[in-house]
Amino acid sequence: MLQNPGEGHPGCWQLGESVEDFIKRLPPVTTSGLLYEWIWVHNPYQKGHCEPQFSKVDEFTIRGQELLMKNLQMRKAIEANDQNKTKDTVTRRLNEESELLQQRITDLAVQTNVLSGKWMLFLSLEELTRVWRLIVDGVINNRLGPVAKVAPEQGKPGERLICIYTKDFRDKDDIRRVLQELVSMGVTGTGKNTIHYKSDPYTCLNIYRQTAAQYGLKASLYSSQELLAEGEQEYDVLYPLTQSNLNRFLNNAPQ
Question: What is the C-alpha to C-alpha distance for residues 23 and 101, in angstroms, rounded to an integer?
Answer without folding.
Answer: 42
